[in-house]
Amino acid sequence: MANSSANASKKMGTAKTSSKKKNKKPNKKAGRIALLVILCVLVVGMLTTAIIGGYVFFNIVSFAHGEIAINLDDYKANQNQTSFVYAYDSNNELVEMAQLHGEENRIWVDFDKMPENLRNAFVCLEDKRFKKHHGVDWLRTFGAATGLSSGGGSTITQQLVKNLTNDKEVTVVRKFKEIERALNLEQHYSKDAILEAYLNTLYLGNGCYGVQTASETYFGKDVSELNLAECATLAVITKAPTTYNPLLNPESNKKRQELCLKYMLEEKAISKEEYEEAVNYKLVFTNSEGYVPKPGKTKNTTEDKNTEKEYQDFYVDYVIKTVCKDLMSKYGYTYRQAMEKINYGGLKIYSAANPDVQKVLNTVYSNRIAFDREADTAEHPAAQSAATVMDYEGRIVGIVGQAGEKNGNLCLNRASESPRQPGSSIKPLSTYSLALEKNYVNWSSMILDYSIYQNGKLWPQNADGTNGSKKEITVQYAIQKSFNTVPVRIITEMLGVNEAYNFMKKTFHLTTLDDSADANIAPLATGALTNGVTTVEMAAAYAVFGNNGYYYEPYCYYKVTNATGTEVLLETKSEPERVLSEDTAEVMRELLKTVPARDFRKSKNLGKFELMSKTGTTSDTKDSWIAGGTPYYVCAVWLGYDKPKVIPFRYSASGRVYIELLDRIHANLPVKEFPKTGKVIVEGVNMVTRHQKARNAMQPGGIVKKEAAIDASNVMLICPKCGKPTRVSHKVNVAVDANGKKNRTMVRVCKKCGADID
Fold this sequence. Notes:
With 758 residues, this protein is α+β, with helices and mostly antiparallel strands. Helix content is 40%, strand content 15%. Among the domains are: 127 residues, Orthogonal Bundle (Penicillin binding protein transpeptidase fold); 186 residues, Beta-lactamase (3-Layer(aba) Sandwich); 37 residues, no CATH class; 35 residues, no CATH class. The strands form nine sheets. It has a five-stranded mixed β-sheet. The protein has a five-stranded antiparallel β-sheet with strand order 5-4-16-15-14, sandwiched between helices. A two-stranded antiparallel sheet has the order 6-9. Helix 1 runs parallel beside helix 6, helix 14 packs antiparallel against helix 24 and helix 16 packs across helix 23.
C-alpha cells in the first residue's frame, strides 16, 4: 500500500511536472510572435513616419517656393492705419490737429526712417539669427519642442506671419502652416522688408500697433528721434505689453531694457561706451514730471491701466461728421463704412481750421465763468452756448458747440446741429438788405416808428414794451435800436411777405426754414422762426456784408487723400456767388457798424478795428444772439438753454462772449479795413431817372426817379442820441485799466448835441 501511495505520489508529481513543460512551449512561441509584431509595427511606423515626414517636408518646400502666400505690399496698402487731421496755422505751416483710429492705433513708418539701434534692439532680443536663417530657426524650434530650450521657437518672420494672419490657435497644424508661410515670405521678400512689416504690426501696449505710435505714446516724439536707451525700452514691451509698459511698470521695463542692451553688446551691435551711456540714461516718459509736450501735444497723466482719455475738440468733431457725410454722398457708403474709412483708412484730412483761432474758442468756452458768473444752481443753471468763426470766403476757421469742458467725442455740436430762433439778428437778412437792394429805402430813409393793426390789435411792441414813438426815424437808428415796428412796416408796406421770405432763403442759403410757417410777418420781422438757424448759417450770411455782396458756402476742409497722398478722395471748393450788389453790402455793413459802437471799444485789442454786429433776443429772453465781424473774420454766437427757458438777468448774454472771442483772436493782428466803394445813397440827393417794372400796388411800373449813390465823404452821419444828421468833431477819451495804464481812444462827437458817435 505504501508503495502504491508512493507510486501515486510520483505519478502526480510526474503529472505536474509534465504539465509545466507542456505550457512552456506555447509561451515561447507567443513571445516570438509578439516580438515580431512589435518589430513590424516599428518598421511600419518608421516607414509611415518617413512617408508622412517626407510628404510634409515636400509640401513645406513646395509651398515655400510657390506663389506668394502673404503679400506684404497689399497688407501695407489695406491694413488698418491711423488717419490724421491737419491744419495750416497763422504762419501757413501744416500742423497736426488729431489722430483718428479705432482699437488699432498704427502709423506705418518706412524701414529707412527707423533708427538702426531700434532695429537691432528687436533682433538681438527676439531673434539673434534673424539675418542667417530662412524664416525658421530649426535649432530654436527643436529646443522649444523638446523642452531643451526655455525660450520660444518662433522667429521674427514667424511672429510676423502670426500678426498678419491673426491665427492664434495652439495646434500642430497651425504651427506647420506658420512655418510654411514664414519660409514662403523669406523666398519672396528681403529681410529689411520683413523687419519693416514686423515693426509696424506688433502690439506695444496702450493700443499702439507698431513702433511709430508707441514712440509717440511713450516718449512724445517721432520714432526717428529715439536714442539707444529709448529704442531698447520699446523693444522689451512686446514680450508682455502690460508687464513691461513703461508708463505703468517702469521698473520692470528698466530691468528688461538692460537685458536687451546686454544682448546688443554681446552681439556687437553697440560698443561698451554706448552700452554704459544707455544703461545710465534717465528716461523721460510722457507721464514724467519733467516731460514737456510738443506744440499740439498733451502730457500723459496715466495712473491706471490705460491712458487718460483726451477728447478731440469740436472742430475735429465737425470735420469728421462732414467728411463722413461727404463719403456717404460720393461713394455710396453706409454710415458705418464711412466711419471705418475715417478711423482705419489712414486718411490725410486737410482741415480749414486756423489752430490759433480754434485755441481761443477752446480756451474761452472751457471756462464756465464766461457763461455763469454765479454758481451753477438748480434755480439758475449754467447756460449753454455755441460759436462759429469764418473768414469772408467760406472758410470756417473755428467752431465750438458747448460751454464747459468737453466730455466726449462726436457729441452734440450746437454750432451746426442745434438751430435756434435768431430774434432781431434776422432783420438784416429778411428785411433791410432786400429793401436796400430794391432801392425802397436807404440808410437815411425816414420810417414811422409805430405798430400796425393786426387782427384788430396794435402789433408788434418794441423791446421797451411800447408800440413805438409815433415819430419817423431813420433806418440807421431803427437798426441801431433794434426796433420791431420799422421792419414790420417795411415788409407789409414795401416788400411783401413772400418776396421777403424767398429772398432771405435763397440769398443767404438758410436750410432750416419751414416754408409753411416761416413765410409770415412775425418770423421775418422779429426772428420767431419755427426751427431757427445755426451759428454756421448765420456766420456765412453775415459774411455777405463784409465781402461786398458775395456768398460763399461754408466749408471745414480742403481735401482728403489716401494714406500715401497719391489719391484725392474728397475736395471742397467754395465758389463766390453774387447775391447782393456791392453798394447794398457796403451800406448794410455801415449800418451794422453803429450797433456795438460803445461796447466793443472797451476791449483791449478790438477797439482799433472796424466792427459790424447785430444782436438778437427772442421773446422772454430765451435765446441770445450776436452776429457780425471785423475785416478779418465774421462771428456768430448763440447763448441759451437746450430746453428753451428764460436766461437769468445776470447774463450779459452773447455779446460778452462775442467781444471776448474777437478781442483775443485779434490780439496780434495788424489793423485792416473792410473793402469800400466809397458810395452811399442819401434820400433826396442825386436823383436819377429809371424804368421800373410793376411789382405791386405800391410799386407801379413806369418811369421813376431814384436816388443814386454819392461819395460817402459828402454824407453826414446820424447821431445815435438825437437821431439827426450831423457833422462831427473829435475828442480823446482816456480810460485807466486795472494796472493804472492809461488808454486813449479817439472818438467822433455829434456837433449838435455833443454825444459820442463811436
